[in-house]
TrEMBL record:
One Pfam family hit: Phos_pyr_kin
Residue ranges of the TM segments: none
Name of the protein in question: hydroxymethylpyrimidine kinase
Organism: Sutterella massiliensis
Keywords: Kinase, Transferase
Pathway per the UniProt entry: Cofactor biosynthesis; thiamine diphosphate biosynthesis
PANTHER family in the cross-refs: HYDROXYMETHYLPYRIMIDINE_PHOSPHOMETHYLPYRIMIDINE KINASE THI20-RELATED, PHOSPHOMETHYLPYRIMIDINE KINASE
EC number: 2.7.1.49
Residue ranges occupied by any Pyridoxamine kinase/Phosphomethylpyrimidine kinase domain in the UniProt entry: 19-268
Any one GO MF annotation of this record: hydroxymethylpyrimidine kinase activity
InterPro entries reported for this sequence: HMP/HMP-P_kinase_dom, PM/HMP-P_kinase-1, Ribokinase-like
């Protein structure tokens, strides 16, 4: 077995919105990071009234308070990796970008959250340009699903598996020179969930058999948070993605062990603990 790069427990922060049901957002992020061996911190960027049935309200957090949370945290805690989730508006996006440019954390995972599982919109329409121009170039890994990728590129979503490589390569034009794109193919038809990881020099594909369950609320949040937790503990980005993919597959496989709500329930963030006892 390869020796991991860092022996100490990494400190990882999620900058995201609050989902009171705990299936998505910052609560899900903290659970996933903890399950993957990191110490999880959180900066609240938005509040939602949300359950497994949908999003019923959004209350933005001011950019000034997001900045204060970040400054206080970074001045005290050595942050190894940052995960960015729901940022409601352009002003908050600009604030987060300024902090990242100033603090320069080693790893940044950007999950471009735009729409909830319930189809409710979480990103203001006028904030897409700021997300594209300010945050994508700062990410170590950006983790869009196919609908998010289409929106970032300003094109119609394709449901053809053979178009994934073209879409991922187009996204590379929006990110930094050393960045990676993890394009998630779970929305495609078929029995396999196929994800494509690209940099300007490497291509990797990660596949897992799809699991028949409606309880997939917060899968994007959970995968990106696991990746942020695992990057400081891995020897390469592809290795961290492989480990994060295995974690989210297990979390979905055991989602039906939980009984949470009557809509799209959460994945089981602590499936490894429960099934190793």
């Amino acid at each position: 077995m390869e020796e991991r790069k860092e022996a100490r427990i990494p400190n990882v922060v999620s900058i995201a919105g609050v989902d009171p049901s705990g299936g998505a957002g910052i609560f899900a992020d903290i659970k996933a990071m903890s399950a993957c061996g990191a110490y999880a911190c959180g900066v609240v960027a938005a509040l939602t009234a949300q359950s497994t049935r949908g999003v019923f309200g959004v209350l933005p957090v001011s950019a000034a308070f997001v900045r204060q949370q970040l400054d206080v945290l970074f001045e005290d805690v050595a942050i190894d990796a940052v995960k960015i989730g729901m940022l409601n508006d352009a002003e908050v996006i600009e604030t987060v970008a300024q902090v990242l440019e100033a603090r320069r954390p080693r790893f940044v995972v950007l999950d471009p959250v735009m729409v909830a599982k319930s189809k409710d919109r979480l990103l203001a329409e006028d904030a897409l340009g700021a997300l594209r121009s300010r945050l994508l170039p700062l990410a170590t890994v950006v983790t869009p699903n196919l609908p998010e990728a289409a929106e970032l590129l300003g094109v119609q979503e394709s449901d053809a598996p053979e178009d994934m490589a073209y879409t991922a390569k187009a996204l590379l034009d929006l990110v930094g020179e050393k960045s990676w794109v993890l394009l998630k193919g779970g929305h495609l038809a078929g029995d396999t969930a196929s994800d494509l990881l690209l940099s300007r020099e490497e291509t990797h594909r990660f596949e897992a058999k799809k699991i028949a369950t409606k309880n997939t609320h917060g899968t994007g949040c959970t995968l990106s948070s696991a990746l942020a937790a695992l990057l400081p503990q891995s020897n390469s980005v592809p290795e961290a993605v492989e480990r994060a993919k295995a974690y989210i597959t297990g979390a979905i496989r055991h989602a039906d062990d939980l009984q949470v709500g009557s809509g799209h329930g959460p994945t089981h963030h602590f499936w490894q603990i429960n099934h190793n006892m």
